[in-house]
Predict the structure.
Amino acid sequence: MSSETSTANQQDLYAAPGETSQGRVFTVTGQDWDSITQSIGDAAEERVVVNMGPQHPSTHGVLRLILELEGETVTEARCGIGYLHTGIEKNMEYRSWVQGTTFCTRMDYLSPFYNEATYVLGVERLLDIEDDIPEKAQVMRVLLMELNRISSHLVAIATGGMEIGALTVMTIGFRERELVLDLFELITGLRMNHAFFRPGGVAQDLPPGALDEIRDFIALMKKRLPEYAALCNANPIFKGRLEGVGHLDLAGCMALGMTGPVLRSTGYAWDLRKTQPYSGYEDYDFEVQTWDTCDSYGRFRIRLNEMWESLKIVGQCADRLAGLEGAPVMVSDKKIAWPSQLAIGSDGMGNSLDHIRHIMGESMEALIHHFKLVTEGFRVPAGQAYVPIESPRGELGAHVVSDGGTRPFRAHFRDPSFTNLQATSVMSEGGMVADVIVAIASIDPVMGGVDR
Amino acid sequence: MSDDKTDENKAARPAEERNLEKAKQETGTGSGVAEPAPEQSPENVPAPTGEVHAVGVRHGMFGASGTGDTSGYGGLVSATVFPAPSQRPYGGWFDEVADALEARLSATDLTSAIESVVVHRGEITFHVRREDLPFVAQMLRDDEALRFEFCSGVSGVHYPEDTGRELHAVYHLTSMTHNRRIRVEVTAPDSDPHVPSLVSIYPTLDWHERETYDMFGMVFDGHPALTRVLMPDDWPGHPQRKDYPLGGIPVEYKGGSIPPPDQRRSYN
């Protein structure tokens, strides 16, 4: 914390020498508020610049907020981002097209399947195999994406609740999310960072018993979701904190490129699943959820309603998958499809022994083919593609560029968190400090996606 | 893969015949405004015609440079060629957009603002002359027939061997009114990495342009505060450029040493 009063008389631990040119700097570490206010003394009425984060429990991740305050009112709010930048896009240029999913799944860690999906759809468009993706792979992708939407919205509501002090919302949110992650673990083997969508299909078929688990989950969620409505929807404290906070109308959304629940909270039913369907979304029966209050409360209600719609889609996927037992989950082109399949052996999951026997004992050509495809990978014709999808946070798109080689020439992700976070200042300037937290929680930025 | 063959076949035939065939393909594929999604399936748009200019060259195969190449493919030279400019008609609503754009441009004496139009894999790309970018973007946003009111952002691409136009800035625009999607691309040479900023037209580009500056060193003239956004303020260099190394250290494992990813054998 810093306040512009007199010359610096205290060493600032976090600024390089000479960086703080004016004002007195206070470093707040917690439990020391009394001593800070005492030493500020009369100067407290002047303009105060608060540096909030990046390590702060209420900033929704490693987000740094630079707030200029007059009393309790925010006069200027700026974001400092980049604390989670890991160079995923650069790294992808040094791996094969298939390995790319392993990297991009780690960007927005709350919706990993969406990162994979937009990248994989872009690669498939460049490969010109969009129409060859087997039906079962499409349905499994939709199933996992919609389950992921539920888990992501649960975290959005849970952490948003925690940040305003509604701790029960947080605990029940994570309780239900755990159920979704269990399903992910059953289907893909991993709770996060799945790398399950591959160019041409998905990595594995559904394991036995998965459909029953999914149906149990739907039945359970139908009992659990009303709890959120009962806890929050008409709760006077909850409504008092959220209603009218973080206001952004349609014109503001358009200018700032906002998508997802923030855009739909203005009453505009823009959802790429409906307007520009991909992965066969046109075959599912669901409604686009909107609200017309342009505020944080509307965004909360949209997320809650969208979970119901996602449950509907998951149910339809389960029904379709029941009739697709044994159908292929990978494109039939052997020049693209991953050659080996995983299987459960006596020592756990590993390469299918049948496949090992085939390439090591029966067919030299199969071995060469396996080796070529796994080490070198396939080539993707030169060109560029952009296939955006509706992630839980809005339009997520991968600009995939190929130079005809076995690696992405460039992969750039248009992450909705990155774009939507720009609205922080518009949403919170002129309001109270406490409302900044609510506004940011209603955007629901995931810093892994913002910084990539 | 299989595309290489069909492209070859197409190139072998005379250009008129190809155009005729394209025209035939396009009839009856006009997807109107009322369609729920733009008709972008590959068979509805013409295939790229011939080749333009190479932006890179690939030597050999199997990444065998440096060691003795016993593969027999060491002398192989193949050019990196991106989809060539397409000829009219582009198919579907692409022509409507191109018509509206050209009509407005010719009315303002800027007919050469569009350098070329590429239709590939059901997506349309307008290559725009860099100095005319703000005007074209303003028109794309405001014109009634165009109405590309939503910008998804700008993405930089660095083509070190595309001499004179090494840096590309790629904008993805959406018309929510007409439910259409286009791509606008401008280029700048490495020696003069300036592109006009579009923040005044699409405020959402604020951080996107900062990111592209951060990662590629492209200077967006007119941006209100063009500073780094992801990398630290005092970071040297622009990491996404192709001449910027990935970095990394060798990893020791059970007596072996695995080189960092950018020094491993690569299959070119």
Remarks:
- Chain B has five helices and eleven strands.
